[in-house]
Write a structure and sequence with these properties.
The chain has 590 residues and is α+β, with helices and mostly antiparallel strands. Helix content is 46%, strand content 17%.
Length: 590
């Protein structure tokens, strides 16, 4: 694609505001990581405690909104009023979804809990079904025109996944019809925002970057049950108060109220002294998956529908950017280099494109095959890919943060404090290394299927997220930490060996002195039968002092003239010499 010829490339193509989108579906991934209060507990044990708390929430508590789903293959809830033929079709889609993956991947993704197993399954799923719709108001300045939209969308899935690595992923799927491409681009860009990235004119969140308002609905036009607190109706101008909240020193992410409402009670987001809490991992933009159907009543096929979309608008879908008048969202030279790495077009001639930017996955196309098969595959097969990849990304970042916090604990002064903190660091690193080993062997997949398309898409998606580089970074951090621990262990062993050598050297000297005095060479009973006790003590102390002098000379000759050992021998020499002098003085006056 020669982007220098944009007027030629876009000849005959339509502006985003003139392109109808029959169906638009958006999946949001919200990764959260657990900050444990108890260092001695493994992450898997902490996650198990949280899972029990969510499943066993008392009536009237917001935790009770979340229902445990034993079979993770039922991650898409059945529609209300489902017919028997629809149920059979849904189970058929689930069957194909499971068999799409390697058996070892299925064991992780779809293993059901069993009473005979003591450990929980690798993935625990909770589902919330009290929210049926969401109303979103948003706007965008496109050229000279300010365009506003107000959409009420169906909430088709609201899931909470818990992983034993200390990661939770909240999944929200919303669906709406009768869009323009510009409206969906704007919705895709702004609805995924977790908080205001900046403030506009000191008034509130920047319009066009975040929604103007969000309201959760139990039914169209009605609020959901007030379970455990009020469901907020959020407005963009309310966020200016977040500036003061950031000034309290904690620097916690000022999440929008409508996102907090989804997990409040189930996942504590506020820091609590002595308690676990969850931290939002991404920046203000959640990772997304989207399906954009360009099917229309004019009878054009998929290729014609795709051909009518400007390349720049496809790029905006790929990078989750809002609509603009400009032909391209970024510099054309830059896009010419990187754009081929973001497009999977194996079935482009059939009217289907897959656009991948790592944080966003977009299937765009038209036609009956796209609306029936491709759309369902995105909701199931590719959704599982995205769940695994974003979970792996969150887990690796979590391990890196845990290692950093463990290293921070080494900051101390004083020998005793440093020793205690070294032991704490050793224990923390042992837990992290054990958790990382579980992650490598249970959750890290570099290939998930024998299907050629699955292999190609998964490889491209992994490359966009740079998972291999991140994995290598975490391994290096663990290796450096272990090298530090090994060095400290060797230092302690060397210090212990030196202490033992000091004791041995003193023992040898005293042993030689004792042996000499016991040989009746110095102490002869007949020769010294008229000596009193003081005389014997004086002579014994003199002999010991002589061997101390000999020991010091020997250490110096052997090159073992260490300060601490020299001091010990010096003290012994002074003690024995003083004892000898005192004893001789007593004998002289006796």
């Amino acid at each position: 694609m020669d982007m220098g010829q944009e007027n030629i490339a876009d000849a005959g193509k339509r502006l985003a505001n003139d392109i109808r989108v029959g169906r638009g579906r958006l999946l949001l991934f919200w990764p959260l990581i657990l900050h444990k209060a108890a260092d001695g507990k493994s992450m898997a044990e902490a996650i198990s405690d949280h899972a029990h708390a969510i499943a066993g929430g008392p009536p009237g508590d917001r935790q009770s909104c979340w229902q445990r789903i034993d079979d993770t293959l039922d991650h898409i809830p059945p529609p209300f009023g489902e017919r028997e033929d629809e149920r059979v079709g849904r189970r058929g889609h689930a069957y194909a979804e499971a068999l799409y993956f390697h058996e070892f991947v299925r064991t992780t993704l779809f293993r059901r809990p069993a009473p005979e197993r003591e450990t929980p399954p690798p993935i625990q799923l909770f589902q919330r079904r009290d929210l049926r719709h969401v109303r979103v108001a948003f706007q965008k300045q496109i050229g000279e025109s300010l365009q506003r939209w107000d959409k009420t969308l169906d909430v088709e899935r609201l899931n909470l996944y818990l992983f034993s690595t200390g990661v939770a992923v909240v999944v929200l799927e919303v669906h709406g019809e009768d869009w323009t491409l510009a409206a969906f681009q704007c919705f895709h860009d702004c609805f995924r925002r977790l908080y205001a990235p900046f403030f506009q004119d000191g008034v509130g969140a920047p319009r066009g970057f975040v929604p103007d308002g969000v309201s959760w609905l139990a039914e169209a036009g009605s609020s959901p049950p007030q379970v455990g607190g009020e469901c907020p109706s959020w407005r963009a101008e309310d966020t200016i108060g977040d500036v003061d909240a950031m000034g309290d020193g904690s620097r916690q992410t000022p999440l929008f109220g409508h996102w907090r409402y989804l997990v409040a009670g189930a996942l504590p987001l506020e820091r609590r002294p002595g308690g676990d809490y969850w931290r939002s991992l991404s920046d203000e933009r959640m990772p997304t998956m989207a399906t954009v159907s360009l099917s229309s009543a004019d009878g054009c096929d998929g290729r014609q529908a795709l051909a009518s979309v400007r390349d720049g608008d496809l790029m905006r879908l790929c990078f989750a950017d809002g609509p603009e008048d400009d032909a391209y969202p970024y510099d054309r030279g830059f896009l010419a280099r990187v754009w081929p790495n973001h497009v999977y077009d194996r079935f482009g001639d059939r009217g289907t494109l897959y656009l991948l930017s790592g944080y966003a996955f977009v299937a765009v196309g038209a036609g009956s095959d796209f609306d029936s098969y491709v759309s369902e595959h995105v909701r199931r097969h590719y959704f599982q890919m995205g769940l695994l990849l974003h979970f792996q990304h969150a887990s690796l970042l979590s391990y890196s943060m845990r290692i950093t916090r463990a290293v921070e604990a080494l900051d101390g002064s004083g020998k005793h404090v440093a020793h205690d903190r070294n032991e704490q660091f050793r224990e923390r690193m042992a837990l992290i290394e054990g958790d990382f080993l579980q992650f490598v062997h249970r959750y890290r997949f570099t290939g998930i299927s024998n299907q050629m398309q699955a292999r190609e898409v998964f490889s491209l998606w992994r490359a966009q997220l740079e998972l291999d580089a991140l994995f290598d970074d975490v391994k290096d951090e663990l290796r450096n930490a272990n090298a530090f621990l090994s060095a400290r262990t060797e230092e302690h062993q060397t210090a212990a060996a030196n202490k033992l050598a000091n004791v041995a050297a003193i023992g040898v000297v005293l042993g030689l002195a004792s042996s000499t005095m016991g040989m009746n060479v110095v102490f002869d009973e007949k020769r010294f039968e008229d000596w009193n006790v003081a005389s014997h003590i004086a002579l014994a102390a003199a002999v010991a002092a002589f061997f101390c002098i000999a020991g010091l000379a020997g250490l110096r000759y052997l090159g073992l003239w260490q300060g601490r050992l020299k001091a010990l021998f010096g003290i012994l020499l002074v003690v024995f010499a003083a004892t000898s002098l005192i004893a001789f003085a007593i004998r002289a006056h006796g």
